[in-house]
Amino acid sequence: MSEPSDAPRERGWIARFARDRVTPNLIMLALLGGGLWAAGDIKQELFPEFELDFVTVRVAYPGASPEEVERGIVLPIEQAVRGLDGIKKMTAVAAEGSGSVTLELHADVDDLQVYDNVRQAVARIVTFPEQAERPVVSRLVRRRQVLDLVLYGEASETALRELAEE
């Protein structure tokens, strides 16, 4: 039986796929095959690492007020590291007896190189007060907790711990 010639013929991809059953099935198989092939390249970890890199500079200045710490410790450190590459954000805290400067690093920089540059810049500061202790420059890597596991039951704590570790 043939269609009447005066009936409008449907156009578009959906109408074509509705008439032709082979092409949509081939496309679906290709997409499923590509997904299965790409699944082999997905990185899997039990505890994935989520890093935010920071460099901190801490200097103890016993007996000093926050104003003295700001003038003698924080401001010279800020001036020394201000022009270094790779620093995204600088945060300073002047407290009684100590001061610290925290530097958040850009994600695409070599954090060890920035750490070395900060350490060298701080070592060149000669204007620290005499009573101030040596600066401590450290690298911080923050990791986000991924999973909390809570077990409950009519068993000893040792048995529950062994079950959780399995």
Short description:
The protein has five helices and four strands.
Can you walk through the features of this model?
With 166 residues, the protein is α+β, with helices and mostly antiparallel strands. It has 5 helices and 4 strands, in the order ααβαββαβα. It has helices at 13-19, 22-39, 66-81, 111-123, 157-165; strands spanning 52-60, 87-95, 98-105, 136-142. A 4-stranded antiparallel beta sheet has the order 2-3-1-4, with helices on one face. Strand 2 (87-95) and strand 3 (98-105) form a beta hairpin.
List the defining traits of the structure above.
alpha+beta, 166 residues, 5 helices
Parts with pLDDT < 50 across at least 5 consecutive residues: none
What is the CA–CA distance across the termini?
Answer: 67 Å
Give the overall form. Answer: elongated
Rg calculated over all Cα atoms: 31 Å
Topology:
Elements: H1 13-19, H2 22-39, E1 52-60, H3 66-81, E2 87-95, E3 98-105, H4 111-123, E4 136-142, H5 157-165
Antiparallel strand pairs: 1-3, 1-4, 2-3
